[in-house]
Specification:
CATH superfamily of the largest domain in chain A: Survival protein SurE-like phosphatase/nucleotidase
Largest interface: A-B, 80 and 79 residues
CATH architecture of the largest domain in chain A: 3-Layer(aba) Sandwich
Oligomer: homodimer
CATH topology of the largest domain in chain A: Stationary-phase Survival Protein Sure Homolog, Chain: A
Number of helices of chain A: 7
Number of domains of chain A: 2
């Protein structure tokens, strides 16, 4: 039996500690390739580079840096680096910081995993929550375990697992749904050295709603959180409702 | 009664024709503000600019350009331009080109609308499908109608409407779910003028699966497609399944 083919990416960049820990942890499970951004790409979400060509720089036997986004990396990894061989698994991370709740929409880590799902490859995103002192040791070990399980059991098409590891030794594992956060202050006004106004996004600390069953609640209680996320964002319940209310919406004849 | 407060944004940029048509079409519905990127931002997805401050340039009484992404524009629009007044509606578009199926993950147009939903504001994304000759006239008229309905009826929290207008006069309206597309060729190898290899993403034409009930099928048959999208990407069915299979996953003690 050929060993599983595993592609690793992230959004913190090729030279980050988290991706090193992840690649090392997965090393014994199969043939591991790393294709990651050449620099930090946090909050780039699912951005794809279409306006310019990308560079692929080989930094190790199975290690490449790309001057693009996490989504670019997965696309080039599958479409170019692996030369037509489809990976059995894509693992994205280990991200420096949580990717929970609404924030998964901004996350390059989660988007790299979604890109794999779009390409039909099972995928896991792994993030290390940072609230105090922490160690990647638990995250590396857990990434190896969950990767083993997904390689063995598979995942349904269109689904990825979003894993968040608490800062201190996890008490156990919880399957969760996404939580809700609100930021206290969205925009901070500033003045540049030439006296012109400018604006920073994201001033205040995030405030999480502590709702039972969510990723945030699990991590807050000291557990590792695993949230199944679906590629298809259609709201099926809402679609049924709209269909039943079509007359009231009165949109024909426009 | 104060007129509704409407914020308009897009990903094609402040100077694009589509946003002009949209702002004009919505003008009679209320107080319309435009906050849009200062240049094209296609495929930037939900990217948020956190590493540098943003510039806000006033170009009209109620028109501002931002040197950032569509998500930045909605954040600055609500957090700075409107100075604490919450819009009644955010409309993003009219995008030059379709935003259907898996592609909504890459879309700056759809992400601007999602950012509004995160901020608790009802939102609509409007895209003009371009397959041949087209006119924004139908799209502008329809944007006005659907905006009127959403202002009147509201939308549940966490939901946006993703509208795609066919290239020729629409036969009517269909409520749809997201379709599936596959690209024929993902990566195109190229050589720069100095002889170095580089790689373009997205060579081949997209191939759509013509599945009944999807956005693509509706537009393909000549109808305007409206897909309700949900902010919460949790796969609830998969979550129930995982909870029922927790013993088989055997993830404790890690």
């Amino acid at each position: 039996m050929t060993p599983p083919l595993i592609l690793v990416s992230n959004d913190d960049g090729y030279h980050s500690e988290g991706i090193r820990v992840l690649a090392d942890a997965l090393g014994s499970l199969g043939e591991v390739w790393v294709v990651a951004p050449d620099r930090e790409n946090s909050a780039v979400s699912h951005a794809l580079t279409l306006s310019r060509p990308l560079r692929l720089t080989q930094l190790a036997e199975r290690g490449f840096a790309v001057d693009g986004t996490p989504t670019d990396c997965v696309t080039l990894g599958v479409g170019q680096v692996l030369k037509g061989r489809t990976p059995d698994l894509v693992v994205s991370g280990i991200n420096f910081g949580a990717n929970m709740g609404d924030d998964v929409h901004y996350s390059g880590t989660v988007s790299a995993a979604f890109e794999a799902v779009i390409l039909g490859v099972p995928a896991i995103a792994v993030s290390q929550v940072i609230w105090s002192e922490f160690s990647y040791a638990f995250a590396g070990r857990f990434a190896r375990l969950i990767a083993t399980r997904v390689l063995g059991r598979g995942l349904p098409p269109g689904v990825l697992l979003n894993v968040n590891i608490p800062p201190s030794r996890p008490k156990g594992v919880r399957f969760t749904r996404l939580g809700k956060r609100t930021y206290g202050e969205g925009v901070v006004e500033d003045t540049d050295p030439r006296g012109r106004k400018c604006y920073w996004i994201g001033g205040g600390d995030p405030v999480w709603e502590d709702i039972p069953g969510t990723d945030y609640a699990a991590v807050g209680a000291g557990y590792t959180s695993i949230t199944p996320l679906q590629l298809d964002m259609t709201d099926r319940d809402q679609l049924l409702l709209l269909d039943s209310e079509v007359a009231a919406w009165d949109l024909e004849g426009s």
